[in-house]
From TrEMBL, chain A:
Any matching Pfam family: E1_dh
Keywords: Oxidoreductase, Thiamine pyrophosphate
The protein, known as: 2-oxoisovalerate dehydrogenase subunit alpha
Domain of life of the source: Eukaryota
Catalytic activity: N(6)-[(R)-lipoyl]-L-lysyl-[protein] + 3-methyl-2-oxobutanoate + H(+) = N(6)-[(R)-S(8)-2-methylpropanoyldihydrolipoyl]-L-lysyl-[protein] + CO2
TrEMBL record, chain B:
Ranges of residues in domain Transketolase-like pyrimidine-binding: 1-177
Molecular-function annotations in GO: branched-chain 2-oxo acid dehydrogenase activity
This protein's UniProt keywords: Oxidoreductase
Catalysis: reaction(s): N(6)-[(R)-lipoyl]-L-lysyl-[protein] + 3-methyl-2-oxobutanoate + H(+) = N(6)-[(R)-S(8)-2-methylpropanoyldihydrolipoyl]-L-lysyl-[protein] + CO2
Entry-linked SUPFAM superfamilies: Thiamin diphosphate-binding fold (THDP-binding), TK C-terminal domain-like
Protein name: 3-methyl-2-oxobutanoate dehydrogenase (2-methylpropanoyl-transferring)
Record PANTHER family: 2-OXOISOVALERATE DEHYDROGENASE SUBUNIT BETA, MITOCHONDRIAL, 2-OXOISOVALERATE DEHYDROGENASE SUBUNIT BETA-RELATED
EC id: 1.2.4.4
Cofactor: thiamine diphosphate
Enzyme class, first EC level, given as a word: oxidoreductase
Pfam family, one: Transket_pyr
Length: 533, 292
């Protein structure tokens, strides 16, 4: 064992390695040095190495022996201090701060925010102690102290025309749609469904703050936003049945994967958070498109999706590159069965906004008016600043994740009941409307009866319609440019189906029955050259 | 022009001819391989810009630009690093048109992703890969690999104007390998058609990218068979029809590529062409590939 008082000394050993080169027969001698400590009498020097192929690097400048003049501190105005005496921010102009910060003023050492030197370790775990949640109405529909009602001009106009704010109309419609389609899945009439129960205020309130030219990127539980934007019940039902009137996805997608370019509603796809970098790209396009100044993107995602890499990619790109985009998080407490305590340990999703330099707000997602106000302001900030804004709406998923899920496996039924009774977004908004004398019990009954009739009529109609032509299955796999043909591989596969149908379509019972569900019963793919429809 | 200059020229042409075209990726303002160098001075930082270091973000951002009618030309700095973007490319870009009933991307929208691929001799595991085989199953996503400066410019411009998302894999060892008289005009070369580099009657050698040059330079033994050399150019959708017709004339075919044997272009090609031209073949279709 070495003595503790032993000075570290440099031990340099040279190994002479000799070997005979196979090709030339010459002896090659290589040296390898092992240095086990700093060389005793050599001062370090900077290498001034340049290569002919690259620009010479600047010569290193000797480290400055900087000490700030005391007068700089004496003249500084009194600074606001936190409880433990640390300054909250360093006042003064940028040049002054830079001078006082000394070498830290190098742009490579700074973030986008000013920092200051500190002699004590400044560990932190939050940018604010707790992030408050903005609300306008309490659980019973009363105005919260200090809160301002959003400008209800749109609502009042609706009220004068139809004696009803449109938001409430959609909010009361969606549970009926959900209920009918949920039950129809249970009866085997559609293959899949996802309810939005409990999140009506978050989706309708945010959609109501958007304007017709805006682009909307959904995750999958935003049917209320889509209906509020003008998607018809018939279109919605047709998508869920994948029938011939399903213009958006032509019967190719599972139920709830809506698509409506007319309403700026981008196609829902199943992978989570993939819509987010896309929304960042669309926002950037809007920012630079002279014809679309004033338009905005809204991108919905959930608390689970915020764990995906795409979430971080999107917020990072949007914050750096800009583009008007509202990042609207529906924090509904669950990602399928995973509760938020298993999803993140920080202060929700809102705490991540400042990390990306985004204006951020947390809002009571069950309060329609708070969501409306917050998203209107978010939209104003996004459009005027051509930048992203993060809104975290705190809500609760009352329904199961989807028809493939039974939530009683992982949460108490009483808990769900409590949410739907104590903090029901529809009841809350209705209580507010009633308190304003804009709504009454008989009107409610009439409206619900009308909704039910419309939903059942639309459901019955969509269920009876046939599926699109069978050949639609092969269209749009490849886009076809001007003067080009569809790639041969896909046409060959189409012809293969045609041949099989000719051979078995009438004699094999499963196919004979299945064919009848399609427009033209598969005749369209049975042409010989594999072309048609 | 050499190959990187031809790419630079094509990008400049694309940006000049479409005000809604954007070139972006990691370090594109500088241009690590010089393919994008100087474009920012010519077209400005709004249209030629660096992005944060996120491949999935770059791919998704491009899809979003294309969705609303812009022409997105993205760069992934190395093909080896394209895998974080795999989800966006395979699940989103490739399927977008089909999923939306043909509505998205909106008219004018297109996505092109460029990435340097292949070995140079000192790249190790993560600067040498040929990832094209992974994308064969993603119908809706075109994949092309050019062999020379003239080809690169024409195919890249065709890719940028193609309504489908296109992956352009550029063999990076060829960037400075050779110079050609590349037209400075705006021109395109057809995607989906193989190119006959040399005529021959006894054997077809199908290759693309770097090994095509090796095949071209090899001196066959004496007596020399007459070898037809074909540049595949388009990896997906693979032009099976043209190759089947060609092999019917020679009865023999060898596929040569740099990527490994499994799950790649060679076996896909050999299987499909072998099935279609079985009765014409004099020998099994050969495959010369990289080792795995």
């Amino acid at each position: 064992m070495p003595s503790p008082c032993l000075r570290p000394t440099a031990v340099t050993t040279k190994y002479a390695l000799s070997r005979r080169s196979a090709g030339t027969g010459a002896i090659i001698i290589a040296y390898r040095s092992l240095i086990t400590g700093p060389p005793p009498n050599i001062t370090p020097t900077h290498h001034t190495h340049t290569t002919p192929t690259s620009t010479p690097l600047p010569q290193p400048v000797p480290l400055p022996t900087f000490s700030p003049p005391l007068s700089a501190f004496a003249q500084a105005p009194p600074q606001p201090h936190t409880q433990d005496g640390k300054p909250l921010y360093v006042p003064g102009g940028q040049a002054e701060r830079a001078a006082r910060a000394g070498r830290m003023s190098s742009p490579l050492r700074r973030g986008s925010h000013e920092s200051w030197w500190s002699g004590s370790m400044g560990w932190f775990n939050a940018v604010a102690k707790t992030i408050p949640t903005y609300r306008v109405l309490d659980e019973e529909g009363h105005l919260v102290k200090g809160a301002e009602l959003p400008e209800l001009c749109y609502a009042e106009r609706w009220y004068s025309c139809f004696r009803l704010p449109s938001r409430y109309r959609t909010m009361t419609l969606i549970p009926i749609v959900d209920n009918v389609l949920y039950q129809s899945q249970r009866q085997g009439r559609i293959s899949f469904y996802m309810q939005c129960a409990g999140e009506e205020a978050a989706t309708v309130g945010s959609s109501a703050a958007m304007l017709p030219g805006d682009e909307m990127f959904g995750q999958y539980r935003e049917q209320a936003a889509l209906l509020h934007r003008g998607f018809t019940l018939d279109a919605l039902m047709s998508q869920c049945f994948g029938n011939v009137e399903d213009k958006g996805t032509k019967g190719r997608m599972m139920p709830v994967h809506y698509s409506s370019p007319e309403l700026g509603f981008h196609t829902i796809t199943s992978p989570l958070a993939t819509q987010m970098p896309q929304a960042a790209g669309a926002a950037y396009a809007l920012k630079l498109d002279e014809d679309r100044q004033g338009d905005c993107v809204i991108c919905y995602f959930g608390d689970g999706a915020a764990s995906e890499g795409d979430f971080h990619a999107a917020l990072g790109m949007n914050s750096v590159l800009g583009g008007p985009c509202i990042w609207f998080c529906r924090n509904n407490g669950f990602a399928i069965s995973t509760p938020i305590i298993d999803q993140y340990a920080g202060d929700g999703i809102a705490s991540r906004g400042p990390a990306y330099g985004l204006d951020t707000i947390r809002v009571d997602g069950n309060d329609t008016l708070a969501v409306l106000s917050a998203v209107r302001e978010a939209r104003r900030r996004a459009v005027s600043g051509k930048k992203g804004v993060l809104v975290e709406a705190m809500t609760y998923r009352v329904g199961h994740h989807s028809t493939s899920d039974d939530s009683s496996m992982y949460r108490r039924v009483e808990e769900v009941k409590e949410w739907s009774v104590v903090d029901n977004p529809i009841h809350r908004f209705r209580a507010f409307l009633v308190s304003k004398k804009w709504w009454s019990e008989p009107e409610e009954k009439t409206l619900l009866a009308k909704h039910k009739a419309e939903v059942m009529r639309s459901f019955g109609r969509a269920e009876k319609l046939p599926k699109p032509k069978l050949g639609e299955m092969f269209n749009d796999v490849w886009g076809v440019g001007k003067g080009e043909e569809v790639p041969a591989v896909i046409m060959e596969q189409r012809a293969e189906l045609g041949r099989l149908l000719k051979k078995y379509g009438d004699v094999w019972e499963p196919w004979r029955r299945e064919r009848k569900r399609f427009v033209e019963e598969g005749e369209d793919v049975m042409d010989c050259d594999g072309r048609g429809s | 022009m050499n190959l990187y200059q031809a790419i630079r020229d094509a990008l400049g042409t694309a940006l000049a001819s479409n005000p809604k075209a954007f070139v972006f990726g990691e370090d594109v303002q500088t241009g690590v391989f010089r393919c994008t160098t100087g474009l920012v001075d010519e077209f400005g930082k709004k249209r030629v810009f660096n992005t944060p270091l996120t491949e999935q973000g770059i791919a998704g951002f491009g899809i979003g630009l294309a969705s609303v009618g812009a022409s997105a030309i993205a760069e992934i700095q190395f093909g080896d690093y394209i895998f974080p973007a795999f989800d966006q490319l395979v699940n989103e870009a490739a399927k977008q048109r089909y999923a939306s009933g043909g509505a998205y991307p909106l008219p004018g929208g297109s996505l092109t992703i460029r990435a340097p691929v292949g070995s140079v001799g000192h790249g190790g595991l993560y600067h040498s890969q040929s990832p094209e085989g992974f994308f064969l199953g993603a119908a809706g996503l075109k994949v092309i690999i050019p062999r020379s400066p003239i080809q690169a410019k024409g195919l890249l411009l065709a890719a940028i104007r193609d309504p489908n998302p296109v992956l352009v894999f550029e063999p990076k060892i060829l960037y400075r390998a050779a110079v050609e008289e590349v037209p400075t005009d705006d021109y395109t070369l057809p995607i989906g058609q193989p190119d006959v580099v040399r005529e021959g009657a006894d054997l077809i050698v199908v290759s693309y990218g770097t090994p095509l040059h090796i095949c071209h330079a090899l001196k066959p033994p004496n007596p020399a068979p007459s070898i037809q050399l074909i540049d595949l150019r388009t990896i997906s959708p693979m032009p099976f029809g043209a190759l089947t017709e060609a092999v019917k004339k020679t009865g023999r075919m060898v596929v040569v590529h740099e990527a490994g044997k499994s799950g790649g272009v060679g076996n896909d090609l050999a299987g499909e062409v072998g099935r279609r031209a079985f009765e014409y073949l004099e020998a099994p279709i050969g495959l010369v590939s990289g080792w795995e």
